[in-house]
Design goal:
Blueprint (H helix, E strand, L loop, with lengths): L12 E6 L2 E5 L4 E5 L1 H4 L15 E4 L4 H7 L6 H13 L4 H8 L4 H14 L3 E9 L2 E8 L5 E7 L1 H4 L14 E3 L3
Antiparallel strand pairs: 1-2, 2-3, 3-4, 5-6, 6-7, 7-8
Helix pairs in contact: 2-3, 3-5
Length: 177
């Protein structure tokens, strides 16, 4: 499938994530397209209003619905973030109710296992660059404690999550617990 337009303009890049799920990136934004065939298999709680080409989910908030509708097509980290997002945000009440009910028990269990396995590691948040490199605000998976890492190279800043901040040595400052 070749995507020539999206709600955010002409795609600059696109990739197939799984059958019927495509990611696009445009000049200013991006998201995920779920084709009509794949959309028909989504739990009702995660559905937005589809168009003729399928249903578009923007990359900041709506994409979490796709991660939870098709968790086997995404990383454990993506599913973990999506569970966190939906349990704390009030944007999608049907999805939040799905997650809290018996229907969401498998997703909650995956979230719990990921937290137990990776609890002492960190996920990146806001980033800024300077002549010295990247400064990134990280949150610990187990409890959300904050750490700031400074002067990171591109490879360090964009390494896969979750991250063991010990590898950055003295360039990390940890918030008081």
């Amino acid at each position: 499938m070749h995507i020539t337009s999206s709600p955010w303009g002409k795609p600059q890049t696109q990739r197939k994530i799984a059958a019927g799920i495509f990611e696009v990136s445009c000049a200013g934004h991006g998201g995920i397209l779920v084709t009509p065939e794949r959309f028909a298999t989504m739990p009702e709680a995660f559905r937005l209003t589809p168009g003729a080409s399928g249903c578009w989910y923007e990359e900041d908030c709506e994409v979490h619905l796709v991660f939870l509708a098709f968790p086997d097509d995404f990383s454990e980290m993506a599913v973990w973030h999506a569970v966190n997002f939906l349990t704390t945000a009030d944007y999608y009440p049907e999805a939040k109710a799905f997650l809290a009910a018996d229907t969401g028990s498998a997703l909650r269990e995956r979230h719990k296992r990921f937290t137990e396995t990776n609890g002492l590691l960190y996920t990146p948040g806001s980033m800024m660059s300077s002549a010295q490199g990247w400064t990134i605000r990280f949150r610990r998976i187990s409890d959300g404690n904050v750490a700031i890492a400074k002067d990171l190279s591109d490879d360090e800043a964009f390494s896969p999550s979750p991250v063991d901040l010990a590898r950055f040595g003295e360039r990390v400052s940890y918030a008081a617990a």
